[in-house]
Amino acid sequence: MGVEYLAESPEQFSKRLNLPFKNYFLLTRALTHRSYLNENRDAIEDNERLEFLGDAVLDFIVADWLYNNYPEKPEGDLTRLRAALVHTDQLADFAIQLGLGQALRLGKGEIQAGGRERPTLLCDAFEALVGALYLHGGIAAVNDVIFPMLQDVMGVIFKNHLDEDTKSRLQEWAQGHGFPSPKYILIAELGPDHSKTFEMEVIIGKEAYGRGVGSSKQIAEKAAAKEALKILGVLEFN
């Protein structure tokens, strides 16, 4: 019952990716969404418990990988990188790379609603797959699958996530070095009302650390904070 709704069986999925499963009980559970369980009496359990386990395993695996591969990064940077790597959209991207959606056991309604492409569902299924890999082969089995994926995506992560909230990072730097919170001062406001440009300067204590320009004060403040972080050596120049 329900086989016609599977684009790929657990066995086919495992063999295509050369996964280490010797039997497919855990993998089948990892690929079973609760919508399938509700419609098919042959299904024993959905993937939510494995998702819970996989979420915790991923946090550890990613933290371990970052710690060992980026020994120069401070704790704050490692925390941001880990958050970016285990974010829902990123885990959904990992699932897409594996072609996980085509192997999911979904109910008819979920399939018709586009469940095979839904980011949250793919993210949950990826976490469940990690949980199944861990139970089957331990940390080493998870590492074999996850580490190459982490390596491949790090360039994009650095570009898109590491410095996305420069104001918070500058605030953390100031507090960590015993300085008062940064203050942002409007230096210039140019152009007509419908197309203004703002220039902001960031002050820490009594010293100016950076300036930034943008189409809003907030954008200019972030640019000023980014320049300050570069001057302080927290961010690299590019």
Quick structural overview:
The chain is mostly helical and 238 residues long. It contains 10 helices and 3 strands. The protein has 2 domains: 3-160, Orthogonal Bundle (Ribonuclease iii, N-terminal Endonuclease Domain, Chain A); 166-231, Double Stranded RNA Binding Domain (2-Layer Sandwich).
Tell me about this structure.
With 238 residues, this protein is mainly alpha-helical. It has two domains: 3-160, Ribonuclease iii, N-terminal Endonuclease Domain, Chain A (Orthogonal Bundle); 166-231, Double Stranded RNA Binding Domain. The protein has helices at 10-17, 25-30, 34-39, 48-69, 75-85, 88-98, 108-112, 119-160, 166-176, 217-231, and strands at residues 183-190, 197-204, 207-214. It has a three-stranded antiparallel β-sheet. The longest helix has 42 residues, at 119-160. The protein is elongated and about 70 Å long.
Secondary-structure blueprint of this entry?
Elements: H1 10-17, H2 25-30, H3 34-39, H4 48-69, H5 75-85, H6 88-98, H7 108-112, H8 119-160, H9 166-176, E1 183-190, E2 197-204, E3 207-214, H10 217-231
Antiparallel strand pairs: 1-2, 2-3
Helix pairs in contact: 4-5, 4-8, 6-8, 9-10
Q: What is the tally of helical segments?
A: 10
Approximate helicity band = 55-70%
CATH architecture of the largest domain: Orthogonal Bundle
CATH homologous superfamily title of the largest domain: Ribonuclease III domain
Number of domains: 2
Oligomer: single chain
**Average pLDDT:** 89
* Class inferred from helices and paired strands: mainly alpha
What is the class of the largest domain in the CATH system? Mainly Alpha
How would you characterize the largest beta sheet?
3 strands, antiparallel
